[in-house]
């Protein structure tokens, strides 16, 4: 039997859809047949470009704007998506606040707050907004974009790592709480990934990084999107509570 990722009839929301990884996830879910809500915070031009691209390919999509750390804005997004597409079957939490990395002693306290809000509270608010409709349907997918940094704990990663490790704990608990409704809750953890902004550079496989990666190369943005599409599909219907590194083996969860 040929396996096929078919999301026809499914509705997906991707937060941070205009970002380097988010845009490829959005395209891929649409190519698999899902109707997609394209979320953005500030890059309206890229959101419109994605919408046009999906519609020209015969897909259905819409754009929603909002601050994913604010309850009222997520609630507004929910109502807009429900009105135009319906209640999402798939929620991909990809958005994260960007900041400058430095040591614990030098990192501004507000950077820890921003990471908690965008890594933990975003997912709390998304769950509260969208999981009740999934429970009514008796199915659903929550997919969070984590990071290999959550296992590395390298210098200067503290705020990002703290936020993502908090997210990991939330996802594991949520997976146990909603599993009886056939809702799966999983995380994809990219490594240092090649995306659109990198292509064309002279050296994409920096030796200091790839020498430690078993596959001896960096992954592509499409690799991350493929994992998301798989977890969104019926093929992954019996996988939940997972933290799945997509990084060539650079980090490996222990048992």
TrEMBL record:
Keyword Lyase listed: no
Keywords: Oxidoreductase
Keyword Membrane: no
Record GO biological process: bile acid metabolic process
A Pfam family annotated for this UniProt entry: adh_short_C2
Domain of life: Bacteria
GO molecular function: oxidoreductase activity
Database matches in SUPFAM superfamilies: NAD(P)-binding Rossmann-fold domains
Similarity comment: Belongs to the short-chain dehydrogenases/reductases (SDR) family.
UniProt name for this protein: 3-oxoacyl-[acyl-carrier protein] reductase
Protein source organism: Fontibacillus phaseoli
């Amino acid at each position: 039997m040929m396996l096929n990722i078919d999301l026809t009839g499914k509705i997906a929301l991707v937060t941070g859809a205009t970002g380097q990884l988010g845009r490829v996830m959005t395209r891929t879910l649409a190519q698999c047949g899902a109707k997609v809500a394209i979320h953005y915070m500030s890059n309206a031009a890229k959101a419109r470009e994605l919408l046009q691209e999906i519609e020209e390919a015969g897909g259905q999509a819409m754009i929603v704007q909002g601050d994913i750390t604010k309850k009222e804005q997520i609630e507004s997004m929910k109502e807009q998506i429900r009105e135009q597409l319906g209640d999402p079957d798939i929620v991909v939490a990809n958005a994260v606040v960007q900041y400058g990395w430095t040591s614990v002693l030098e990192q501004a306290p507000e950077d820890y707050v921003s990471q908690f809000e965008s890594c933990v509270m975003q997912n709390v608010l998304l769950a509260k907004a969208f999981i009740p409709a999934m429970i009514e349907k008796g199915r659903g997918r929550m997919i969070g974009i984590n990071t290999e940094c959550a296992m590395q704990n390298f210098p200067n990663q503290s705020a990002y790592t703290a936020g993502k490790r908090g997210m990991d704990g939330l996802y594991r608990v949520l997976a146990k709480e909603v599993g009886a409704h056939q809702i799966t809750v999983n995380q994809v953890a990219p490594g240092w990934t090649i995306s659109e902004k990198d292509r064309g550079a002279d050296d994409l496989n920096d030796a200091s990084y790839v020498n430690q990666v078993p596959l001896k190369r960096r992954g592509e943005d499409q690799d991350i999107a493929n994992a998301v599409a798989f977890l969104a599909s019926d093929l992954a219907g019996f996988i939940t509570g997972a933290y799945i590194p997509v990084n060539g083996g650079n980090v490996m969860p222990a048992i």
